[in-house]
Amino acid sequence: MAEPRPHRPPADADARVRPPAPPTSPPVLWRAGRFRFEFPRPTLVMGIVNVTPDSFSDGGQFLEPEAALAEVQRQIAEGADVVDIGGESSRPGADPVSEAEECRRVLPVLEALAGRVAVPLSIDTQKPAVARAALAAGASIVNDVAAHRADPAMWEVVAAAGAGYVCMHMQGSPRTMQQQPHYEDVVREVGQFFAERLGRLAASGVGPRQVVLDVGLGFGKTLEHNLRLLARLRSFRKFQRPLLVGASRKSFLGNLLGAEVEARLPGSLACACWAVGAGAQMLRVHDVGATCQAVRLFEALQTRK
User: Fold this and answer.
1) Where in the sequence numbering do the catalytic residues fall?
2) How many domains is the chain partitioned into structurally?
C-alpha cells in the first residue's frame, strides 16, 4: 500500500494565517520652483548661512558677500541639499531690521549664486517684500518663521512664484518668544496650528505640495516643550507633508547638556539622528559635513534592521 502523502497546506495558507502587511505610505512630493523632491528618499540636509552681525551661532562670520559665497560653496561640497540664507537674526530677543537692510545683505549673495549652484537656495525671512526680491534673485524656497501671521501677503508671494514654503510654528515673535512660553499640550497645539495653516495656505494659492512643516524648536518653547515635540515628532506625519527639524546648536541643547554654543555638535548630531528615526525628512543645520556623515550612517543601519 502506498505511503500516505504528507499533508501540504494550500499555497495561499500562509497568507490566510499571517496578518496582512501594513499598507505602503504613498509618496510625498515637494515642489520648490524648478526643483522637485519625492519622499521617501535620503534625508535632505539644509545648510545655514546667516548674513547677519548678530545671529546666535555664526553672527558676523558671513556678513560680507564674499565670505557668505565661500560658505555656501563649502556647504554644498560637504553635502548640503539646500542652503538657507538669512539677513535678519531670529535668535531670542533679536531686534528686527528694515526691509532695505535685509535686502542689502542677502540679494548680492543670491544674485551671485543664481545659476551657479545645482541645489535650491532658500531665503530665511519674515517679510513678503524681501521674499519677493529674493525669489526674483534666484531663491526657490521661503523659510518663514512667522507663519502664524494673519496677513496673507507672504503666501501670495509664494503662490505667485510657485516657491517651496517652510511653515514654522512660533509662539510670539523672536523678540518676545522666550519670555513666558506656555501651552496646555504643546504637541496637540502645534498640530492644530499646522492644520489651520495648511487651510489658510491653500486659500491663498499655495498648494500642499509646496509646503514643508517645521515644529519650531526653540521658538517660543521651553526645554520640556522642545523635548516633547521631538519625542512625538511622528504624530505630525499625518499631514502627509515633509517635516523639517532645526535643532542645530540651539539653546535647549545647552540647557540640557550644559554646553556652550561651540560645544553643542554632539547634541546636535544626536538630535538629528533621533529626528530622522522619528520621521523627519529635512534637517536645518550649521555643521553640514558632520551631519551628513551621521545621518547617512543612521539611514544605512535603518534599512538593515
Assistant:
1) 250, 284
2) 1
